[in-house]
Amino acid sequence: MRIFWSFARQSFHAAAIFRFEFWLRLVTSFVWMFSAYWLWRVLYTQQPGAFGVSLSQMVTYAGISAVVFMIMRPSTYVAYSIASRVKSGEIVMDILKPLDFHLHTLARSFGEVLFVSLTMGLPMLLAGMLLLQVQLPSTPLQALLFLTSLVLGVGVSFSLNYLLGLLAVFTLDIRNISWAYGAITRFFSGSEVPLWLLPLVLGQIAAQRLRHWGRFELVLEQQVHHRAGSERRLAGEDAEERHAQRVQVR
Predict the structure, then answer these.
(1) Number of other residues whose CB lies within 10 A of the CB of residue 247
(2) pLDDT of residue 47
(3) Residue 3: CB partners within 8 Å, gap ≥ 6?
(4) Cα–Cα distance, 122 to 77 (Å, whole number)
(5) Cα dist. 95→82, 89, 99, 183 in Å?
(6) Which of 36, 74, 106, 148 is 20 to 30 A from 10 (CA-CA)?
(7) 3-state SS string over the chain?
(8) Rounded to an integer, what distance in angstroms lies between the CA atom of residue 73 and that of residue 58?
(9) CA–CA separation, 132 vs 34, rounded Å?
(10) Closest to 185 measured CA to CA, from 207, 162, 157
């Protein structure tokens, strides 16, 4: 564990060097969160009861989604890092070192995630609470479940991107594969659109097929579910039932 924390601390300090990139990513994340807020606010103005949840809950969902996506973003760089080292041949030296390559990669990714959580995730969460009325967990149990699922989600995201990076051993260039994987992950994890608002067919695919194949919902949706609470889940289930009834009537 001493070696793990040494590499994590080194990665933490390395991430703090690039100040321009830090401010650019922070501003971009704030713009994304505020854009999502105004988008849902306008939609609720047109159709207040069409989404199965209140505006406050949807704003909380969008705000937490932006924060969680920012925290998990460093784990997506793992695939490109591995592919780059495979293409340059540095992966050979990494494997020959008396250190587990998977553990070394995990430690560096953990350091970056910790840096992003403290310097970007917390400011975004505070801004959402003060400016957008993003709600805090109502009970300590919800807060504990959220933090636990967030840590597990980071682990799932890292593992999937680690496997994706290993494909470079066979393909060398994984840019197109990584782009397709990122698009599928963001869509079926509920980052772009909450899963309970998807059309019936896509909702069934996300709920049944992809949960057995990729567990994409563990990357983001479960963290937001624990944050939004059981009231959102019940409202979403009611909305799905109403949608299914409309389809049957047609």
Answers:
(1) 11
(2) 78
(3) 99, 103, 107
(4) 21
(5) 12, 11, 8, 31
(6) 148
(7) CHHHHHHHHHHHHHHCCCHHHHHHHHHHHHHHHHHHHHHHHHHHHHCCCCCCCCHHHHHHHHHHHHHHHHHHHHHHHHHHHHHHHHHHCHHHHHHHCCCCHHHHHHHHHHHHHHHHHHHHHHHHHHHHHHHCCCCCCCCHHHHHHHHHHHHHHHHHHHHHHHHHHHCHHHHCCCHHHHHHHHHHHHHHCCCCCCHHHCCHHHHHHHHHHHHHHCCHHHCCHHHHHHHHCHHHHHHHHHHHHHHHHHHHHC
(8) 22
(9) 8
(10) 157
AA identity, residue 146: F
Check: CB of residue 173 under 8 Å from CB of residue 204: no
151 to 27, 68, 128: CA distances (angstroms): 24, 10, 21
Query: CA 164 to CA 99: how far, in whole Å?
Result: 21
More confident residue, 46 or 236: 46
Predicted local distance difference test score (pLDDT) of residue 188: 74
Closest CA to 154 of 64, 69, 66: 69
Would you state the structure tokens that stand for residue 135, as one six-digit string? Answer: 């709600």
Query: What percentage of residues in the chain have a pLDDT greater than 90?
Result: 0
Instruction: Indicate if the pLDDT at residue 116 is higher than 50.
Output: yes
Residue with tokens 């924390």: 5
Whole-angstrom Cα distance, residue 74 to residue 119? 13
| CA torsion angle 158 162 165 167 (round to 10) | -140
* b/e per residue 210-233 (b: at least 16 CB within 10 A): beeebbbbbbbbbbbbbbbbeebe
